[in-house]
Amino acid sequence: MAGAAARREKAKENQNNLRSTAFIAEFRKSNISLAQIAEQLNKNGFRISTDKIFRRKTVQRVINNL
């Protein structure tokens, strides 16, 4: 469990995550799909904390943690 908790804390402090969270929150106001949000994040150069692209499920997880 300590490893998972450490990853969650690291993710909360990651600058890419902080920027993408704000971006996602704005897009949710427009009622576009999770897949479309992921596509826009990727087009704008956003990456998750492990330097991978966003996917629909990744966006859903971010929203769940807002």
UniProtKB/TrEMBL annotation:
It holds the Pfam family Recombinase. It comes from the Bacteria. Residues 30-65 form the Recombinase domain. InterPro entries: DNA_bind_recombinase_dom. This is Recombinase domain-containing protein. It comes from Larkinella rosea.
